[in-house]
């Protein structure tokens, strides 16, 4: 995997900018830099920035005045000799500089190749490299926070005790294979089963955090449902503090569903206002209802808006029944009016978490915002532990747990040590794949293909 060639790429986004950074990595980085400066005896101090004139190595034409930083191997991001040229951000100029470097012998870097080299040279493990990508792509504060923690090596640190325990369990099994003629004593097997059970449960709870981790990273789909005139559009607008939906007194005006993005405490929320789930009066409304059902199916959280100034109707009950399978929250709207809603006394809404608000005055909206996030943040472990935000990691953790379950079954069935060991080794391999210790070339290239060029 070690490539001896020197790669080059623009590390800042393409387009016009004040400054743009061209990055070189590989054994010839310094030689190419000398050629660009037309100074064969140039020996820059590592990690220091200095200002130099760049020239075309063939025509000697002045290209730019640029800030140059040299990072000497192994003290660099990739572990190789790295040169960074902070040029003026003119696309034509940048193309000329990169072209000059290519003519000197550098190769255009593939997507993620700098980070891949950092992994190959042991400067980053695979989950840290993925965190570099996630950090660059993060859309929310929550995503930035998680990626930064993963980049700091928290996930690998969290996995290490699992691997240590696995090895502790593997060693005596292996040695009993070697040295003991008889089967392992019952007591030892019982102890092993307990340990495996504990370990697989711990792996599963870590994998479980993916539900919250994914949502905090990618956002939460929230659908607003309720009978016509309950105040869905008003709640929608109040949450967005904008006026996109048309608010009227005529039942059934919000015929189409409307989605907008907002953030609550840095978490993106895709809020969808739907037409009322009610017996369809005409075909247009029928379409709206279908969209509502789809919105409920797609939603991570469904908010049922109820007109608190009225008694709970059969229609409200039907809507509650419709959402009962999904995660939902009751919003009792119109608290500025006399409240006639009977609250939890009614069978259908009993036990459902509810928030009382007024879309007209804004009362209760702080509580509502909190209640929208609560089901996702409450199930997440405290801020001190890592969340799984990557589907690949989630899958591998589940596979590791499943392998341990098959070892447990093997023990129950009185299978031989080597059969018990298969599951243990599989689990160790899956955990290793998360950090990249046991990852094949194919998987690596698949992962790095999702990076941007210059990273
Ligand atoms: P939707 O059909 O569920 O989307 O309901 P709308 O948002 O269109 O609201 C229906 C009617 O209820 C409109 O006349 C709103 O002004 C009124 N409304 C909505 N929220 C409140 C509220 O909190 N208090 C009062 N007094 N009226 C409200």
What would you say this structure looks like, in words?
With 455 residues, the chain is α/β, with parallel strands linked by helices. The chain is built from 14 helices and 12 strands. The protein has a 6-stranded mixed beta sheet with strand order 3-4-5-2-1-6, with helices on one face. The longest helix has 33 residues, at 186-218. Bound molecules: guanosine-5'-diphosphate.
Strand order of the largest sheet: 3-4-5-2-1-6
Provide a count of the helices.
14
Count the E strands: 12
Computed CA radius of gyration, to the nearest angstrom = 30 Å
Average per-residue pLDDT, rounded, comes to 84
Tell me the overall shape.
flat
Amount of helix: 40-55%
What percentage of the residues does DSSP assign to strands (E)?
A: 15-25%
The profile of the biggest β sheet is:
6 strands, mixed
Q: What is the helix/strand order?
A: EEHEEEHEHHHHHEHEEHEHEEHHHH
Q: Terminal Cα separation, in Å?
A: 17 Å
Q: Can you tell me the residue ranges where pLDDT is under 50 for at least 5 consecutive residues?
A: 243-255, 276-280
Bound molecules: guanosine-5'-diphosphate
Structural class: alpha/beta
